[in-house]
Write a structure and sequence with these properties.
Strands 1-2 form a two-stranded antiparallel ribbon. It contains 2 helices and 2 strands, in the order E-E-H-H. It is mainly α.
């Protein structure tokens, strides 16, 4: 997982539920925790999100590298 100020990348293995369901579950859990910390804010996510299946081991390695190498924005 790589959490940025304006988006999140996550690699999840969830063949029994599928990608869209897994994304909704992650958003739901994160929303619950965020509301505990910031109760006044009501909206956290844009609609949708990108779900992409990993096709094979080389693709898994590529996706893992992509997530791990996301640059963090500079701290002001």
């Amino acid at each position: 997982m790589n959490v940025q100020p304006d988006h999140v990348h996550a690699l999840v293995e969830a063949p029994e539920v599928g990608g869209r369901h897994a994304m909704r579950a992650l958003k739901s859990f994160a929303t619950h925790r965020l509301r505990e910390e910031f109760p006044a804010r009501r909206r956290w996510w844009t609609k949708g999100g990108k779900v992409e299946p990993v096709l094979d081991e080389p693709h898994l390695a590529q996706v893992t590298r992509y997530i791990e190498n996301q640059p963090y924005p500079p701290v002001p």
